[in-house]
Task: structure prediction
Amino acid sequence: MVNRINYVYDLLGPSLLVDTACPSALTVMHLALRAIQNDSYARGANTVVVKRYDKSVEHQDHILVMLIGS
Result:
């Protein structure tokens, strides 16, 4: 299912299913930050889009939250 979402929406980068019960959101954010540090894009299928700060400014994206570290 996860790879199908990437295909349908033409998303780039890795896709993976994280099933860790309650802390899954924190786990996903940690993995997203690590992906950004490695110059990869990380996007959530439902509500979270994570992007490097410099790329967000370059694309004039509306920034709601900044994550400093994990």
Remarks:
- The mean pLDDT is 75.
